[in-house]
Amino acid sequence: MHDFYRVIGNPVGHSKSPAIHAAFARQLGIELEYATCLAPLDGFAGTVAALAAAGCKGANVTVPFKIAAFDLCTRLTARAQAAGAVNTLSFDGAAIAGDNTDGAGLVADIVGNAGVTIAGKRVLLVGAGGAARGAILPLLEQGPAALTLVNRTAASAHAVAAQFDFPIAVRQFEALDGPFDIVINATSASLTGALPPLPAAVFGAGTLALDMMYGAAPTPFMAFATGHGASARDGLGMLVEQAAEAFHVWRGVRPATAAVLAQLRAGA
Ligand code: NDP
Question: Is 66 an active-site residue?
Fold first, then answer.
C-alpha cells in the first residue's frame, strides 16, 4: 500500500488539497494517496487516532480544527507554537508532530510568486485570528521595516502582538494612515462578502494587497484595493505554497508550484 495522507476538516469536500498534492506527487514521481477526511465536529481527536492507527503518515488540518490539532500534538515547531494553531500533522507511532505552514506559504507567495520583497517594507496585517497569528513569525523573519496589526476586536490584536518580541503596532481601523507597501487581509470577512472597514489611504500605487481568501471572483477587499491603485492578489497562491511546504515536511523534498498554481487558476 502507498503512503497515505488526509486533509481533515468539516466541511472538507470542497478542498483543493487532494488535487494539489496529487499534482506534486506526479511531478516528483512519488506514489502516495491523499484524500479528504470529514471529521465530526465533536470528533476530531478520534478521527486523528483512527487515521494514525491505520498507518496514515500525515494530515493537513483545516477549518474548524486547527486549534484542536495544536492541542493534540506531542511536539510542535516554533512556527506552530507562534501560530497557536496546527495545519500539518505527521504521525510516527504514538507521536504526533505539529507544524503550521500557512505563514510560510503566505511569504512564499508574496516573495516568490508576486515578486515582492518583504524586507524593509511597511506591512499591514488585518485580522487577529488563526491565519493572522500564523503569518506573523514568517513575516517578521523576512525583516519588514514595520508591522502594523488591525482587528475588529482590538483586544485580540493586542493579545496577539504581545506574544512577539518585535514591536508590532496595533491600530484602530479609523486611525490607519498610509500607504502601506503590503496589506494582507487575514480576516474571514470575504467569506460573507464583507469588507473590513479599511480607510482607502492604506492603499497606494505601490501597494500589494493580498486577500487570504480565494474564489472565482475578486473579493470585496481586492476590488476596494485595486479601486485605490493597489495590485491585488487572492489566497490561491498561498494555498498552493502552504501545501508545498507541508509536502516538504512529510517527504523532505519541495515540489515546484508555478505549474500547479497555473492549472488551478485555469480551473483544470
Ligand atoms: P478566524 O475565525 O480564526 O479569524 C477570523 C478573523 O476575521 C478575526 O480576526 C475576526 O475579527 C475577523 N473578521 C471576521 N469577520 C469580519 C468582518 N466582517 N470585518 C472585519 N473583521 C472580520 O479565521 P482564520 O484566521 O482561520 O481565517 C481567516 C481567513 O484566512 C479565512 O478567509 C480563511 O479561509 C483564510 N485562510 C486562507 C488560507 C490559504 O491558504 N489561502 C490559509 C488559512 C486561512 P474578530 O477578532 O473581531 O472576530
Answer: yes
Q: Mean pLDDT, the chain, as a whole number?
A: 96
Average pLDDT over residues 172-190: 96
Phi and psi torsions of 31, nearest 5°: -90, 115
Question: How many residues does the structure list for the chain?
Answer: 268
Query: Residue 63 C-alpha to ligand 1 middle, in angstroms?
Result: 11
Distances (CA, A) of 117 to 2, 102, 121, 138, 262: 39, 18, 8, 13, 22
CA distance linking residue 138 with residue 81, whole number of Å: 12
pLDDT at 1: 77
Q: Residue 267: what pLDDT?
A: 85
Judged against a pLDDT cut of 70, whether residue 268 lies above it is answered with no
What residues does ligand 1 touch, defined as CB less than 6 Å away? 102, 105, 127-132, 151-153, 156, 186-191, 194, 196, 212-214, 235, 238-239, 242
Three cell numbers written together for 175: 486611525
Positive or negative: CA dihedral 166, 144, 240, 229: positive
Asked whether the beta carbons of 112 and 167 are under 8 A apart, the reply is no
Task: Show the domains of the chain with their CATH numbers.
Answer: 3-100+237-267 (3.40.50.10860), 103-234 (3.40.50.720)
Residue with cell 504521525: 91
